[in-house]
Amino acid sequence: MVTQLVGLFAACLLAANALFQLALAAGVRWGNAAFGGKAAHDDGSLPPRYRVMSLVSAAIMGFLIMVVLSASSVGNTRPMDAGFVTLVCKGATVLFALNTAGNLASTNKIERWVMGSATVCLTISFGLIGWVF
């Protein structure tokens, strides 16, 4: 039951972040809260290269949602190979830890506090699923 709650929590955080990245890719003017706030145009939108990066990021998060739901046996997700899921969860733990360091170093308050908090929670969630459960 705890594994399912952790997995569902992580999936919800990933979905929220994926929606944020999709909005950035679509041109929503929230670019100051992403990529260290340094990539945004004066109007807050991102240049095309960063929009593509946001789109790729959203796709990766979609994949991680499937992995974490499979790993935590939430819903009717298609079961994945346990070794593969464990490896992906461990890798995601490291990547989210590095992402957290970048978010906490940002000068933008939204990126530091909101995104930093989200990536701390994702680091812990994937760590629990990959190493503990």
Structural commentary:
The protein has one domain (2-132). The mean pLDDT is 93. The chain is elongated. It has helices at 2-25, 48-71, 82-105, 109-132. By secondary structure, it is an all-alpha fold. The protein has 4 helices and no strands.
Give the topology:
Blueprint: H1 2-25, H2 48-71, H3 82-105, H4 109-132
Helix pairs in contact: 1-2, 1-4, 2-3, 3-4
Work out the radius of gyration: 15 Å
- Please count the beta strands (DSSP E, at least 2 residues each): 0
The chain-level mean pLDDT equals: 93
Structural class: mainly alpha
Task: Determine the number of helices (DSSP H or I, runs of at least 4 residues).
Answer: 4
Order of secondary-structure elements: HHHH
Low-confidence stretches: none
Question: How would you sum up the major sheet?
Answer: none
Query: Structurally, how many domains make up the residues?
Result: 1
How far is the first residue's CA from the last residue's CA? Answer: 11 Å
Q: Given the C-alpha coordinates, what overall shape results?
A: elongated
Q: Tell me roughly what share of residues is in helical segments.
A: over 70%
Proportion in β-strands: under 5%
What are the key terms here?
single chain; 133 residues; mainly alpha; 4 helices
In short:
With 133 residues, the chain is mainly alpha-helical.
